[in-house]
Structure to design on (204 residues):
């Protein structure tokens, strides 16, 4: 009879087993469970662990992350913004160059028109500075400044400030293009905003 606290006799057959037998029994289930765990939870495209004990790799690969040309869209938006800023500078330079001087008689343009002209020029100056720096918010001041130029060109014949001629038609067309282009570019989706939304969607 052997009491529970008494040591049992060691089986001599246990000493005859191979030295690696215990290690194989202990390592194989752990390695199999480790590999099965990663094979189930890791997404398709991720490589399994090549050998037991190897450090776990990230559960995503370059193939599993969606790729979107957001950087290219943001770069194109910046270039388009700067080009439009340069176009506004060229358009206003042409408007100022072709406008004739006031006639000899006293000017009939009202005072509020002078204020409107000063505000429109100030908005265009802010817009051009922002657009040439690649800031898309400059399209807002460009829109309001262009609208002011269109209104001033349309009302100029009523004040008899200048003799109406081909220069007035050219000024009206250029002002309309400046306004329409600013509105059209402002309505386009922002590349930077698209990039933020795409990155946020990829992180989900």
């Amino acid at each position: 009879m052997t009491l529970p606290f008494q040591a049992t006799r060691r089986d001599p057959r246990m000493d005859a087993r191979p030295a690696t037998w215990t290690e194989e029994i202990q390592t194989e289930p752990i390695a199999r469970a480790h590999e099965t765990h990663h094979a189930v939870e890791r997404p398709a495209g991720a490589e399994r662990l090549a050998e037991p004990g190897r450090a776990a790799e990230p559960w995503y690969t370059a193939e599993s992350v969606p790729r979107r040309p957001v950087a290219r869209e943001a770069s194109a938006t910046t270039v388009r913004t700067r080009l439009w800023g340069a176009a506004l500078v060229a358009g206003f330079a042409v408007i100022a160059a072709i406008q004739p001087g006031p006639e000899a008689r006293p000017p009939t343009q009202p005072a509020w028109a002078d204020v409107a002209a000063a505000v429109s020029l100030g908005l265009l100056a802010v817009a051009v500075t922002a657009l040439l720096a690649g800031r898309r918010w400059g399209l807002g001041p460009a829109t309001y400044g262009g609208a002011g130029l269109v209104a001033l060109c349309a009302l100029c014949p009523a004040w008899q400030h200048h003799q109406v001629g081909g220069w007035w038609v050219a000024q009206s067309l250029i002002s309309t293009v400046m306004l329409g282009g600013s509105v059209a570019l402002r309505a386009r989706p922002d590349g930077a905003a698209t990039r933020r939304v795409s990155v946020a969607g990829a992180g989900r």
About this structure: The first helix runs from residue 21 to 41. The chain has a mean pLDDT of 72. The CA atoms of residues 75 and 191 lie 8 Å apart.
